[in-house]
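Journal club side-thread
Mid-discussion, someone asked how the predicted structure for our own chain would compare to the paper's figures. Pasting it here so we can look after the session.
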Amino acid sequence: MLFSNDIIKSLKIYFFIYIIYNIYVKYQIYIAINFVIIYKLNIKKWREIIG
């Protein structure tokens, strides 16, 4: 019983870490895409102001 409980606990911890990792990776990609879009928009604005 104790051995099976330890396996269940470790699986729960592993699953939790896996979910957090997936959310983190997806969120990082989302931030990167937004950053690129904002950066490109800013370049266009700067060119309008300078040019």
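Post-session note: The first helix runs from residue 2 to 50.
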